[in-house]
Amino acid sequence: MGARRRLLADTPPEHRHRQGAPASDWSAGYLNGWLSQPTPIFGLRLWVLVGIAVGAAIVLVLLLIFVCLSHRRRRRGDLLAANLYPAGDTKLLKQHLQHQATPTKDIQEIVRRQQAETPPPPAVQLAKAVAEPKTPPPPPPPQHRQPARKTPGSGGSERDGATPRSTGSAGMPEVSHLGWGHWFTLRELEEATDGLTEENVIGEGGYGIVYKGTLHDSTLIAVKNLLNNRGQAEKEFKVEVEAIGRVRHKNLVRLLGYCVEGAYRMLVYEYVDNGNLDQWLHGDVGEVSPLTWDVRMNIMLGTAKGLAYLHEGLEPKVVHRDIKASNILLDQQWNARVSDFGLAKLLWSEKSYVTTRVMGTFGYVAPEYASTGMLNERSDVYSFGVLIMEIITGRSPVDYTRAAGEVNLVEWLKTMVAERKAEEVLDPKMAEKPSPKTLKRALLVALRCVDPDANKRPKMGHVIHMLEMDDLLFRDVCQNH
């Protein structure tokens, strides 16, 4: 009883309960009184301090969430840079190739199809309206000296010159029951490349090694020996077969056939004999580049036509996902061939985009794809816009050796155009400069392609139209957009 009297004495009068009141009412009154007591901290009541503490805890939790999201974004950006797979040692890659995993179900299915009596329905339907007629090639000019430059691969094996050019089928192995190309045996490809020797290596990267080879009928080929890095060989093999196995276009490198034997996964391409665009833009070509303005425009148009065919001439459409200078191969007439479809994605007409892991080459990747993983053909358009800027300026998309304001090619070029210094962006190795109107046209096309709003970027068919039209018509189109 004495303890209860003391407790009641400590309780504020307004919260004291009558004798016989329910215990719950008495406890609530006591709690209210206790929370209403002033504290030594500025005389604030206890419930005020409790509220402040809860609010601070909520703010802290939100801050931690924000930090985690920022870290995740930076990590995604690092993945882009990490996808610039450095060229590994050839011997080391060959050792890995000897210990590849067993075939996956997808690859086994391809082999079973080879033994089938009837071919499967085509995986890729060609749209005749966009297909280009074949034209006889012009007589070959004198051979060009390839610049001495070898770049690391990204997304696929880099080729230092190479991907195949071929004619005729004499001496080829039997036709594949997949309905296209040829089913090469491992022995045939080893003979063509002198046993996959280092002397025949023309490119190497994170996904394998590319060898130059010669068939019995003297046809030159490029053999891509896929490195099975955590199943990547099966993935790239399946992607390239599905994406371009049946595709025929003069601005797309042709996949001639394949080899699935034991642990080996090999793709056989036509051989393109004049290197890649990256070598001619950034390699040792001397003080004057052989890439004149007309040659550069021809490369832009050829690349655009190849991409337009992938985007608008096929069902499902093919999103390349790794358009860059080193994936544009050149023949002796400076005709462009888009190559390396190891990262390609198929996009059916009923889908406006696909969500996938962010892959590609740092500096070429569209910002909306890098931040969300949502991919469609507009991502390729952005990469093509960066490529146009690279062709015009001779600069890499990202160059940390330059001044702070010139590291990022896209931002630097936007600034130069805004300051009316367009003629100062030209590659200094070009002996003859284009007319101001012609240069302005190419720059405006590039700027439209890299629009931050993906929906405002033109389709590749429209890009071709803008690059080919005359000055008056081009001015009208720009004003309408």
Automatic annotation (TrEMBL):
InterPro entries: Kinase-like_dom_sf, Prot_kinase_dom, Protein_kinase_ATP_BS, RLK_Ser/Thr-Kinase, Ser-Thr/Tyr_kinase_cat_dom, Ser/Thr_kinase_AS
Name of a matching Pfam family: PK_Tyr_Ser-Thr
Main location: membrane
Keyword Nucleotide-binding assigned: yes
Residue ranges with Pro residues bias: 134-144
Record field: transmembrane: 46-69
Protein name as catalogued: non-specific serine/threonine protein kinase
